[in-house]
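--- STAGE predict ---
source: upstream dedup step, 1 unique chain passed
mode: sequence only
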Amino acid sequence: MTLVDVFRARKRIAPHVRPTPLLRSPWLSDLAGASVSLKLESLQRSSSFKARGAFNAVMARLERPGGAPPQLVTASAGNHGRALAAAAETFRLPLIVFTPADAPKTKLEAIRRHGAELRADGRDYDDAERRAKAFATDAGAAFISPYNDADVIAGAATVALEIFEEAPGTDALVVPIGGGG
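--- STAGE serialize ---
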């Protein structure tokens, strides 16, 4: 992946993903002894930055020769599945999301609301991912990883473009990484 891929991703997802505010956090700034700002990705349609990567991955696949894959498949503990379900719904593509059985109900309900088929029976995330990859291989479907897909990563990286454009003097980015990725 290159910076060019990130700029392409931003152009591609612009109609579907909103730029989010970068707001100074007084209490974190006081705690750190430096100016600390937060990028409010919770304001995305899917309530997380995962919308950026999900929309980019789906749209990039639509642009490839042959067009849309016959079936999209992913594994998720929640946010990626929800975001990919929103993207699949937008482009009327079938999606199956494999999750752990104990994934948060609110996230599972959001995945269902977007029309994705939900298979919430994995023992844990790793088991759900194994099941999703096996299904994709057997069905000839396109597996979209929440953490190991160049298009997902390029879409997520558009957050950094917005940060550096809004705050060009940024010295450091602190990026928390959760469950699946």
